Amino acid sequence: MNVSAIIAEYNPFHNGHKYHIEQTKRLTDNSFVMVIMSGNFVQRGEPAIIEKRERAKMAVAAGADLVVELPVPWATASAERFAKGAVYIAAQAGIVNYLSFGCETQDTQALSQIARILNDKVYSREIKNYYDDKMCSYAQARTAVVNEVLGKDCSEIMLKPNNILAIEYIRALQSLKSPIKPLGIARQSVEHDSHILSGSMTSAMNIRNLIKTGRDYKVFVPQSTYDILNCADNADKFPSLYSRLETAVLADLRKKSPADFAFVSDIAEGIEHRILDAVNSSVTLNEVFDKVKTKRYAHARIRRIILSSFLGITESDVNSLPPYIRVLALNDNGRQMLKEMKSKYFFPVVMKYGDVKYLDNNAKNIFMKESVATDIYNLSLPQNRPCGTDMTDEIIYLP
């Protein structure tokens, strides 16, 4: 069986994502495609614009064969932990031959060289020393050390957002000693988080902005995606808005003490005091984010810390690795893939809530945190949904 894995958020699925799947199949002799996709909260530190099963359905409708979930501790983590969690799932599936990712350069050799430097303990210490001495961001420290070791061409590769994730995927493959082969697919026309419109291509961020402001976005998504979004809109299940959770998040922050942040993921250097000082003088989350941001702590990192605190995600949760594979959507090819996985390998696969009772205690804990996150996500929708839907909503099957 020839299988390619793609790590994604599909927030929402658009024409660039469809192109990526098509190119992956073209370059891998028409391999089956397994997508490892973030759940209801994403790496930006906010809820996805539409529920995870609907996004998984979009992917299968546009060419993916099997969509499984990246659990919330890793989906909302730093790029390094996000990548390692997702790559670990691909490796544990036991059937994946290629890891396909979008990037601004297709020079896989250069990406691999950078990954080796970042995985090297000697250079890791150099990065830490540079970070401490220069009082810069960690990303700037890494780029500076790579520039010194490999030169300007390689360090400039690290300035592009998708290249950064590509490097983290390769780092994870290297650290896990996985035989999965990296496959870079050049992004078309526009960069990640760009506001540029180019024919039928634009970024997911721009599509979200079009949706939130009531403007037309149809040309930028496959017809199947557009139909799924319209159906969800008519059922009051779209769009999800972080603003609907804002009062709850602020209320949670206002009752916290510095000690309450002790176990939250990504807390360091007393940043919890800066967060709580900002909370005391702010009436919106954006005010909090702006006041806490520094050269060393970017907006995205602050958003992730605050979201992790709100969802109850701890450092110990994200410092481990995903303990199961959870299926969200599939087609007939996906069924063949699952059959192959189950016949050869023993990593837990969750198809329905009843499967959870066979998991160990750590896996049950992660599953329950996912379920609680979904209960909270359900309050960000136009019409609130009840608790427990993560345990009752069924896998999407498209023949």
Descriptive report:
There is one protein chain. The two termini are 19 Å apart. Helix 4 (79-93) packs across helix 9. Strands 1, 2, 5, 6, 7, 8, 9 and 10 form an eight-stranded mixed sheet that branches. Strands 3-4 form a two-stranded antiparallel sheet. It is α/β, with parallel strands linked by helices. The protein folds into three domains: 3-104 and 183-240 and 321-397, Rossmann fold (3-Layer(aba) Sandwich), CATH 3.40.50.620; 111-159; 242-317, no CATH class. It is built from 19 helices and ten strands. The mean pLDDT is 94. The longest helix has 17 residues, at 361-377. Helix 17 links the parallel strand 8 (325-330) and strand 9 (349-350). Helices cover 50% and strands 11% of the residues.
SSE topology sketch:
Elements: E1 3-8, H1 15-27, E2 32-38, E3 41-42, E4 46-47, H2 52-61, E5 66-70, H3 72-75, H4 79-93, E6 98-103, H5 108-119, H6 121-134, H7 138-150, H8 152-157, H9 161-175, E7 181-186, H10 204-212, H11 223-234, H12 246-254, H13 271-280, H14 285-292, H15 299-311, H16 315-318, E8 325-330, H17 332-344, E9 349-350, H18 361-377, H19 389-392, E10 396-397
Helix pairs in contact: 2-11, 4-9, 5-7, 5-9, 6-7, 13-14
Provide mean pLDDT, rounded: 94
Whole-number total of structural domains = 3
Work out the helicity level.
40-55%
> Globular, elongated, flat, extended or rod-shaped: what is the shape?
globular
Regarding quaternary structure, what we see is single chain
Q: Provide the structure class.
A: alpha/beta
Query: How large is the radius of gyration?
Result: 20 Å
Give me the CATH fold name of the largest domain. Rossmann fold
- Give the termini distance in whole angstroms: 19 Å
The major sheet is characterized as:
8 strands, mixed
